[in-house]
Amino acid sequence: MLRFTTALLALCLCGSASAGVVTVDVLDVGQGDAILIRGGGKTILIDAGDRTADPVEQLRRLGVTRFDLVVATHPHADHIGRMADVLRSFEVALYLDNGLPHTTATYQATMATIAERSIPYRTAERGTKISLGEEAMFTVLFPDSGGMLTETRSDLNSNSVVMRLDHGENCFLFTGDAEEPTEERLVGDGLGPCEVLKVAHHGSNHSSTDAFLDRVQPTYALISVGTSNRYSHPGPETLGRLSAHGSMIYRTDLSGDLRVISDGARIEVLEGTIEELDGVEVVTGPPPVPPKASPSDKAVPQKATVRAEPGSAPSAKALRKADKQARKQARRAERGTAGSVY
Ligand SMILES: [Zn+2]
Fold it and tell me: Could you tell me the distance, in angstroms and rounded to a whole number, from the CA of residue 282 to the centre of ligand 1?
């Protein structure tokens, strides 16, 4: 089902807010990352999923035709698995990575495609800024001027590109697979609070330390992770730390695709499939009743909202699909896994 989470009134998707609307779609690509960000007429992709995913098809269904920026946080296959396909399938104005090479065929194919298609390439460095319209701004936080991290548990993970997106009063933090050494550097660099955290490394216990979360204080924690993955992600320790910091946790393995909508003042999180997320109409109304913390609470299926063409009713098929998703979510709740809110 489509689930709405906001502390205030639902957002308007009509774009009338002064800061415009920014959407962040965490695509369900299994055990990997692929995040689409749109706002101010700009389209940005952070990572391109695992080899087994098909982000190209997902992106096309979302209406994407070109990217102003594509970021590879680091060259592991669960982040650049389909990057070469993405670069071949869409016009890309700029490609950004951490500058660390890898030995894999996947990495080699990615770099060869950048060369073949003459895609402008740049290495990320702290302070680089990319604007999304007048009121939204991306800033690279890592790698910083302290140089690459070495002799860590995973140097490729630890040197992930970390980016912050500021949109009005809202902030998003994109962390790739950053680990504890990265977080120490970010804290040392003066990292501040940020409402929405893309949890690093699929919720691994090697990331999201208390010291890091003390600074970020995320209200929303988004975990891109595969069902029953062999790494046992997300780690129970990380889930516990996020919970202790009061974060609402959303997981692609439980919810499918995630969409976060910012109007510069308020934030809304939607869960569901691509088709549902793209067809959703957010209705204004009284604030939702905050969920009770007790895990024994039974979830009541809610009606999803489906957008109809002007002057027409939503199709019976769309309504059936929405209700089916609502029942599925309720079953998850009864199993104690629903809502991914801890
Ligand atoms: Zn990863």
Answer: 32
